[in-house]
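Thread: magnesium ion complex, take 2
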Amino acid sequence: MPEKPRPCGEEHPRSKLLRMDRIPHIWCPTCGIGTVVNCFLEALLATPLNLKKTVIVSGIGCTGRVAGYVNLDSFHTTHGRAIPFATGLYLSNPDLNVVVFSGDGDLSAIGGNHFIHAARRNQNLKVICVNNFIYGMTGGQMAPTTPVGAKTSTTPFGCFEHPFNLPHLAASSGATYVARWTSLHLRRLKWTIQEALSRRGFAFIEVIAPCSTVYARRNKLGTGFDLMKFYKENSVIRHGADTKDVDISFQGKIIVGKFVDVQKPTFLDQLNEGYSKVFGDKYVPYGSEKWHKMKSEFQVSAAKA
Amino acid sequence: MKANPAGVLTGAHFFDGDYACAEGAIAAGCRFLAGYPITPSTEVAERITQRFPLVGGMFIQMEDEIASMAAVIGAAWGGLKSMTVTSGPGFSLMMENIGLAAMMEAPCVVVNVQRAGPSTGLPTMVGQADIMQARWGSHGDYAIIALAPNSPQEAFNHAITCFNLSEKYRVPVLFMMDEVIGHMTEKVVIPPADRIEVVPRTLTAKKPGQYRPYDAAGGWVPEMIQAGDGYNIHTTGLTHDERGYPQMTAECQEKLIKRLTGKIRENASDIIMVDESNLDKADVVLVSYGITSRVAQAAVQQARKEGLRIGQVRLITIWPFPEKKIAELAGKIKGFVVPEINAGQISYEVERCAAGKCLTRHVPAYGGAVHDPGVIYDAFKEVLHAGKTQTVR
Ligand SMILES: Cc1ncc(C[n+]2csc(CCOP(=O)(O)OP(=O)(O)O)c2C)c(N)n1
Ligand code: SF4
Ligand SMILES: [Mg+2]
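Output below.
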């Protein structure tokens, strides 16, 4: 007779960074989102970043729920608005490392305008997009990333629209770091996130990940193992690829790798440089130590209030 | 706490309402403005762009008003007093995130310099038709505070009041200016900083681990933190418990909504400001706000000259509505006259609170111009001569 399963008595290796009091999470078995979170947390632990100063902002969707499980200051906002919320948060304290977790619909449909403008400004945000080619949370409707021919609940005869090529959109809008992996590429994804976290500027990492429940099932693509096997057989690593060549077709090859890694002054660098030129010493650089002191003059502790 | 002198331009100035509003915000300690240009509010942002660089403020022109409102909430969580400025079309775009600010209890100020609508309407001309939208514009049950200044001086003074109330109650406060107040230029006296009372951003004294972001400890308003201080808070637009964690239950929803609406309703007497005069022996009471309260003075003077007894309740606070005051007066007078530059908004509130005890006469103007005082005067007479409780429209 098989032994009754018993608790292994060990802690989850990432429990420090997870809200264990909120586990079990809502994600389906074999969903790719959890894997991406795991890679992110490993990457975060491998960086020297101050965890106190690291914050997560999400919009709405299955991916949007990431903010609810990570044990950092975490903000679950409105559909599509994670990036502008994160912009305000970062600009209210430039010491913060601000990470945005977004679904493909959240980021490129309802939030598409914010995405291109944050990239254009080279706002100092790290954006991780879980692209499952579909609106997972709402039951599998077409997304701007749905490949031509794929079935969704709102394209029951197949999707006929041209999809977005997200790395190309990010790069041509001005993102200074652009990469793509699948949720099979655990170590590479971790390294990439780690590298992006250490860069200043707008970083965009797309992770192709399975939505087993509403994308794979409707398109008869199999389950967990089949989806990983597909990624293994169809991913092509091509670092430095021209982003205009990395679009994805239905069940076609997936070009992965680091596509863009350039240096460019951020929104705040530009502002500080510009104002310093105009105002000289009268200008206190935004985000500097002196600026932080000015900010604290407007605050009190409840103990003293 | 007294205002930080760094941002206060003490002295007598000749400002329009938009500039005065910007100066009030700076004096109140606002250091973040995210906005998108729209007439007739743009001058607030323009003034801020000139003033912020040397007082440590951040202005960012966002890609739209949706982004602006989202950024304002983000900045509030990062520890800055934050605001956005807009007019009708932008105000409509902000609605979803105004609900998020109410739900997350993010202190912030939204200035709406009202123009005539709907849609693009009369972009450069006056309106007062966003009053109900201010109260109810986002979906679901929530409560906000809204104020309406009637001079550039009040645009300065009450911009400060808006920030103070938003900090005290952790709620978005809507500053409902109108195009005429925004663009009229008058003397504005800015007092010395030590004569300006401001409510600072008050951060909890609790340690991480003891602190729960939505635990109001039996009161109405929970204590705040700022991101990056190690509290590892979670906040969400979903229905949430004291920990800030989503709870998809009717019980949690009831508890939360009762607190979010109750914190404004139960503190109404602390929040509400009205300017009242000649109520003692009044037969008719004028209820007005914004520019209309000033236009109506010509009608009041004429009526008084003829011996009519006109009292006045001028709303500085629009929401929460001064229900008690109106109900109390209703039993003593013949009727209310309510001129507004809309087809009927605050007049419905007056009528509701009067509860049939006296007349309510709405005097509409449809936008693009202020009232002819003559129509307000006619309404006084009409009410005096009308039957007992009929509503005159
Ligand atoms: C303004 C608004 N419109 C629509 C929705 C409904 N909605 C919630 S999540 C979602 C799509 C999510 O898709 P995606 O961003 O790809 O995330 P996924 O669930 O696939 O991770 C939609 C349309 C909403 N919450 N808010
Ligand atoms: S619906 Fe799809 S995306 Fe959402 S949790 Fe399930 S598998 Fe993941
Ligand atoms: Mg998706």
